[in-house]
């Protein structure tokens, strides 16, 4: 906006303001109505849905699938969509940071004096696209599994083991199929071909640091431990 | 106005001043007149009291104004003209109200919550099961966060589509975006506090994601965890960030946001310009 457009806007705004009604009581009434509605919705949700409290946090569990609060689903879904390890930092930090910077500097990008949404199609369409993308990612994130899911196809009998591996944090350091980080651990996509079943079980119990030991899992749930070993040795 | 009932009048032959009641009709009239006067005096007294009661807030306001000089400011604030608006314009104040609701319920939760890895979970259990209305307040805090998040995004959408971030309100847009980020930080830090499996593991993942950021990522993650690993200090760190650092920042920024709203005024709906032009065109014809 140049100086003339600024001056024109301020004059126009002055006219609109002159046509308006006093803040008290007109605006106060509207805001008060909305505030009451907000409080009613909060209390109704609190009574109807409550706030659940799951089992106590246990840092030694290896089989918990983390879920974020719903308004972070779109960020987590980004992680699932981006596969190549070199680009993972783009999904975790890169894209959100770029979007945030763009949002902050928006008034300096869009300097068109027009304010009517119908008369600035680029801005309006961009806004609708961003909302649609966020809504899509949120819904996908809500119905899909967590970012620690392993999408690799396995035979039916190995599926429980795959679930154990997915929720055990293996993907933090290992790559299994298309999922997981490329390091610091070796890829497990074909680990069954490299190591016999017994060796896999031994490594899980007495791993090379920094890998954590899975001996607590074996003590607590031998079945899950065996499923995990069977799944890993099936990867060839 | 009620006159004395008939039977009572007949039983009293004279006025207290001893004047003879020679003509019954005349005395009746006179007593009726006295009652009327008394009634009027009472009415006047009541009126005086009502006026005196009305004087109280005025004199309190006057007392405050004399000492603070806030009178003209408050008048300017309350009776300033607001351009014609619609219900979309209430989203910002509704977000503010949700923030206030979070602040109030948060204070009550803080009275019972203990931010340590060993006690946090049991104290939340205590709030949920034993404390009077504890479950309701905890539910309100949890759902208030969701409602606030929805409202802040709707408010953002309204500001965007109405072009309200343009001159002269660019700075207020930036403050608003920072408030959005701080609201999300509140959501993230608050999620750990119940310290159940769900909140713990989600936070572990979130902090690990932070650490994947370039340059400052690992340092930020270390700062959040209070070390290289999730430990005993992590939860008190999140608690301090959640209830002292971020709310303080938010309160200050909300103050600045509101100051600019009052100073610059809220925008008129963007289609008003077209209407106005059309009206002017009509007038010219």
Please describe the topology of this protein:
The complex is a heterodimer of chains A (236) and B (285).
Chain A: H1 3-19, E1 21-22, H2 23-49, H3 73-81, H4 88-104, H5 106-109, H6 121-143, H7 159-167, E2 175-176, E3 179-180, H8 191-194, H9 197-205, H10 215-220, H11 222-233
Antiparallel strand pairs in A: 2-3
Chain B: H1 6-11, H2 24-68, H3 71-79, E1 81-82, H4 91-110, H5 120-129, H6 134-161, H7 170-192, H8 197-211, H9 217-225, H10 232-264, H11 272-284
Helix pairs in contact in B: 4-6, 5-6, 6-7, 7-8, 7-10, 8-9
Q: Which regions of chain A have little confidence, pLDDT < 50, spanning 5+ residues?
A: none
Strand content of chain A: under 5%
CATH architecture of the domain at 156-233 in chain A: Orthogonal Bundle
Structural class of chain B: mainly alpha
Number of strands of chain A: 3
CATH level-3 fold name of the largest domain in chain B: Cytochrome Bc1 Complex, Chain C
């Amino acid at each position: 906006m140049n100086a003339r457009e600024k001056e024109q806007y301020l004059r126009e705004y002055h006219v609109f303001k002159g046509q308006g009604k006093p803040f008290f009581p007109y605006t106060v009434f509207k805001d008060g109505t909305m505030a009451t509605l907000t409080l009613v919705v909060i209390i109704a949700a609190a009574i109807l849905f409550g706030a659940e409290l799951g089992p106590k946090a246990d840092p030694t569990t290896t089989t918990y699938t983390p879920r974020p609060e719903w308004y972070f689903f779109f960020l987590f879904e980004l992680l699932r969509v981006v596969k190549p390890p070199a680009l993972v930092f783009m999904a975790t930090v890169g894209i959100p940071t770029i979007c945030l910077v763009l949002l902050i500097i928006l008034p300096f990008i869009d300097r068109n004096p027009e304010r009517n949404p119908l008369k600035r199609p680029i801005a309006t369409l961009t806004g609708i696209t961003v909302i649609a993308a966020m809504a899509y990612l949120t819904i996908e994130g809500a119905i899909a599994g967590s970012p620690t899911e392993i999408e690799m196809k396995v035979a039916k009998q190995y599926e429980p083991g795959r679930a154990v591996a997915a929720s055990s944090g293996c993907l933090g350091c290992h790559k299994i199929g298309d999922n997981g980080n490329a390091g610091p651990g070796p890829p497990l996509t074909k680990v069954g071909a490299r190591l016999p079943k017994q060796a896999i079980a031994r490594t899980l119990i007495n791993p090379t640091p920094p890998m954590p030991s899975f001996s607590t899992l074996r003590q607590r749930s031998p079945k899950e431990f065996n499923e995990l070993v069977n799944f890993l040795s099936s990867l060839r | 106005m009620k006159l004395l009932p008939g039977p009572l009048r007949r039983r009293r032959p004279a006025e207290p001043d001893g004047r003879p009641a020679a003509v019954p009709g005349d005395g009746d009239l006179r007593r009726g007149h006295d009652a009327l006067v008394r009634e009027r005096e009472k009415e006047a007294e009541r009126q005086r009291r009502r006026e005196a009661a009305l004087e109280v807030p005025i004199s309190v306001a006057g007392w405050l104004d004399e000492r603070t000089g806030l009178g003209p400011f408050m008048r300017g604030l309350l009776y300033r003209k607001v351009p014609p608006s619609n219900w979309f314009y209430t989203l910002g104040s509704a977000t503010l109200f949700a923030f206030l609701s979070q602040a109030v319920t948060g204070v009550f939760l803080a009275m019972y919550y203990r931010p340590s890895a060993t006690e946090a979970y049991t104290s939340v259990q205590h709030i949920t099961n034993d404390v009077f209305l504890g479950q309701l307040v905890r539910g309100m805090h949890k759902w208030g966060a969701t409602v606030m998040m929805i409202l802040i995004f709707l408010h953002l959408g309204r500001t965007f589509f109405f072009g309200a971030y343009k001159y002269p309100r660019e700075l207020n847009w930036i403050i608003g975006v920072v408030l959005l980020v701080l609201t999300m930080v509140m959501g993230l830090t608050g999620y750990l506090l119940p310290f159940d499996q769900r909140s713990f593991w989600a936070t572990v993942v979130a902090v690990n994601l932070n650490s994947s950021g370039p340059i400052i990522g690992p340092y930020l993650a270390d700062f959040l965890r209070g070390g290289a690993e999730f430990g005993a200090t992590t939860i008190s760190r999140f608690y301090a960030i959640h209830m002292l650092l971020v709310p303080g920042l938010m309160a200050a920024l909300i103050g600045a946001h509101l100051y600019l709203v009052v100073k610059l005024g809220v925008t008129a709906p963007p289609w008003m310009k077209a209407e106005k032009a059309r009206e002017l065109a009509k007038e010219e014809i």
